[in-house]
Structures are given as structure tokens and as C-alpha cells.
Amino acid sequence: MRAVLGLLCLGFVSSLSIAQVQSSFFGMHVNKLSSMPIEVPIGGMRLWDTGTNWFQVCPSSDYTQCNWERLDSWLAAAKRSGVSEVVYTFGKTPDWASSNANGDCWGARPGACYPPRDLNSDGGGTDEAFRHFVEAIVEHNRRLDARVYAKIRFWGIANEPTVKFFWRGTTAQLVRMAKDASEIIKRADPGALILTPEPAANSRQKATDAAIEFLDEYLSKGGGKYTDVVAFHLYANAVSEHPVPEDVSRIVGRVKEELAKHPEVAGKPLWITECSWGKTEDTNWSREDEASGFLVRFVVMAAWERVARIYWYGWDVPTGTLWWQGRSLPASEAFKGVQKWLIGRSVSNCTDRDHVWSCDLTAGDYRGKIVWDEEYQQSSSYDASGFTTYKLINGTIGGIDSQNHILRVGNSPTLLELKQPVSGRKSNTVSR
Predict the structure, then answer these.
(1) Is 50 helix (H, G, I), strand (E, B) or coil?
(2) Neighbours of 6 (CB within 10 A)
(3) Mind listing the domains of the chain with CATH numbers?
(4) Cis check: omega of the bond before 320, within 30 degrees of 0
(5) What pLDDT is attached to residue 426?
(6) How far apart are the first and last CA of the chain?
(7) What φ, ψ does residue 368 adopt, rounded to 5°?
(8) Of the residues 216, 307, 325, 329, which has the fewest C-beta atoms closer than 10 A?
């Protein structure tokens, strides 16, 4: 099945098939300005749940009165954290523009999930309310000093249109909004990238089905004309017992299979603009370090599937939490560690056998292998022949005995390399 899927998707990912992981691969969500600057390096940020939605910055139809102060604070904070380009996703219609200002949004702000009132269900209408907002934010962004502020260069059309918290309109309306936004944005910044609306997929089958069906419908209705990046959300969350980060491969594979039916997006990059294990209280983990293992495995799987960028959700929220109540959690160190492993290298040939996964890591003459046991609280023997050194994600380095080259590998991945070990930092993986 994997081979068949690979053939179906060859055209879609051919330009990315030997891509090395770039620093821009590692993006982040931060929801509180007080959490900035964050304590891990990041190559990008996405603004969502940051108080910068349409209804928050332009609450009236007089766009000369928009309040850009909070948006500017986020863009300045991103710049101070080394990020020059951010993702801004449109969403949350203001009351004055909503087609149903008091409409139910499943407990979210009433009316915000409904399309603008001047946009018909078939995509007809003037769409002036949305167009004027796009013009206002694009012009404001254009005027910002790039020495002080990160710039919005990546524009998402809608957040999770498959979830009724966020969207109660039609796909045809989103295609029209993408058309209008693209014209305005590209006129001001030809190098800007337009993302598809970002449906939410996760380990629960129905959510993944809905996300794939949405992308198919969006592209079938002409959305591919206005697409530079295919974007979606992916949460490898617990279905029965524990989250399974290897679900990344299964879900991304299904997305690619669907996209292969749409030649208009062939070769365009895949971005996961939200991702994590979901709510921590639903993980059923017994040890704090299990989050670290999950994060590394998730990232490796996404890199293997040639996803060009991920945006972890999030730094300072109860979903995928890396920092909480003033302290960094162990998973934040894993986020730093996996960057050291992957940046400038390519992940390939990921295979699993008897619950043990291995992935090749290469760059020029460099050759490494990342291995782990997918079972929680377990470890397995692994034949490390041909390698001289192992590294753990916490920075521990040890040597591999040339005579007895069997290692115990656990839930948190181990990197095997052809290097001499650094003295004084040897450690062993935990055995069953």
C-alpha cells in the first residue's frame, strides 16, 4: 500500500523529494505577548489566538479607525525573536459585517463564524467588506519598517473551515475570498504566498476524512488558482490510550493521495500550520519525558513526508504545551534538540519492524540513523553495526562498542552517527 501511495503522489512531491530540512521548517504558535521572547529558536510564527483577528483590529466599517497596536506588538516581538516573516490567517467576522451577527458559533463569539453579508453562498456578491479589510491590513503591513517588525508574507484564507467554531459559510465563498485576497496581496507583494484554508485533521478518522473532503472540494471549485501553499492542521492525538506520532505519516499520506488528483497544485509545498499531541490531559502519559519523545517522532515523520513547514501549537497554551507557569517543560528542550539533528539534513527510508522505527539521516558525506521504539514505557534491542556514536535528544552522547554493538532504544529517539564520542558524557538507554 505504501508503494502504491508513493506512486500516486510522485508528481505532487517530486520537487521536494530530496529536500533538506531548513530552519524555516520549525514554526511556533505563541498566544501571549508576555511569553515572548520564547526560549527556543524558531524559523517562523503563525498569528492565531493572538487578539489580531478581523473583529479585533477593525471592529467598525471605517477602516481608517482600525487599531493595529496589538498586531504591531506581535510583529515586533517576532522580529526580536529572529523571525522576519509570519503567517496571518484571516478569520472571525466582525458584527457589522457578519451575515448573522447573533448566529451560534458553538460557544465561540456569536456571528464571528459566519461569512460577510455581502457575499452570496455561491461566491457571488461584492465581497467589499472583506476586500476592504484585506486592503487595510496589507497596506499597513507594507508600511512597517522591516528593521523593527516582522512582515506578514504568508496569508491563510481561513482557520479550520471544517469546524463550526470558525466557519458556517460555503466552500464557494472561501474560493471567492481567496480570489479577492490574492489579487490585493499579490499586487502589493508579488512574493507573498497564499495558503489554502487550513482544515483540521487528527488521529480520529472522521476529522481526517472531513479535512481531505474539504481540500478536494476547495480545489475542485477553483481554489487551486489562488494557492501557493497547501496548508492544514494535524494533531496526532490519543484515540484510545496514548497519542501516536507516527499517525503523521498516515494522515499526510492520505492528504497527498487526494492532492494527486489536482494537477493545479502539483509541486506546491505542504505546510502543517497547527500541530501537536492535542490537550495534555488527554495523553494518558505517565512520565513528563514522554512528551519529548512524541515531539521528536512527530517532527521526524513530518520531515520524512516532505512537509516544508510545521507550526507547533503551542508554546504557552494547554495544547501541546512547551512552556507553562514560567518554566520550560522538557519537550521544549526536545524542540531545540531535534533542530540540531535535522537542519541541513534529509530524512529518508523510514521503516518500522516489530514496533521499532528507523529513519536515515543524510547530508553530503554525513550518514546517521534515528531509531526508536514506538511503544510507551518500552525499549528494544537494536543492532547499531556501522555506527560509532549515539546521541539522545537531551544532549547525552555515548560510544557504541565495536564488538557488542547492540543498543537498547526506547520511546524517545536515539541518533546513531559515525563520530567519536565526547568523553565523560556516556549514558545508556533504559531497558525493559
Answers:
(1) coil
(2) 13
(3) 2-344 (3.20.20.80), 351-417 (2.60.40)
(4) no
(5) 40
(6) 32
(7) -140, 175
(8) 325
What is this structure's pTM? 0.92
Burial of residue 217 (CB within 10 Å: 0-12, 13-18, 19+) is middle
Assess whether the previous peptide bond of 94 is cis (omega < 30° from 0): no
Average pLDDT by consecutive 10-residue portion of the chain (432 residues)?
42 55 98 95 97 97 96 98 97 97 94 98 98 98 98 98 96 98 98 98 93 98 98 93 94 97 97 95 87 97 98 95 92 97 98 96 96 93 95 95 91 88 39 30
Which amino acid is residue 155, in one-letter code? W
Alpha-carbon distance of 243 to 295, in angstroms, equals 11
Task: Tell me what pLDDT residue 288 has.
Answer: 79
List phi, psi (to 5°) of 45: -135, 150
Residue type at 100? N
pLDDT confidence of residue 18: 63
Q: What are phi and psi of 254, to 5 degrees?
A: -65, -40
CA atoms within 13 A on the CB side of 150: 25
What sections of 14-153 are H helices per DSSP?
Answer: 54-57, 69-80, 128-143
Length of the chain: 432
Q: Which amino acid is at 215?
A: L
Give the residue from 381, 386, 353, 382 showing the smallest Cα distance to 367.
386
- The confidence score (pLDDT) of residue 421 equals 40
Nearest C-alpha neighbor of 48 from the set 40, 59, 56: 56
- Name the one residue in this structure whose C-alpha cell is 528593521: 147
Q: Which three cell numbers stand for residue 260?
A: 494527486
Give the per-residue pLDDT at 9. Answer: 47
Nine-digit cell at 197?
Answer: 484554508
Sequence-ordered list of residues with C-beta below 8 angstroms from that of 77, at least 6 positions apart, any chain: 33, 36, 37
Q: Report DSSP letters for 253-281, one per residue.
A: HHHHHHHTT-GGGTTPPEEEEEEES-BGG
Residue written as cell 489562488? 226
Helices (H), 23-127: 54-57, 69-80
- Three-state secondary structure call for residue 63: helix
| Phi and psi torsions of 232, nearest 5° | -160, 170
Q: Coil, strand, or helix at residue 60?
A: coil
Q: How far is CA 302 from CA 67, 176, 197, 252, in A?
A: 37, 31, 20, 8
The Cβ of residue 371 has, within 10 Å, a number of other Cβ atoms equal to 22
Integer Cα distance of 291 and 113 in angstroms:
33
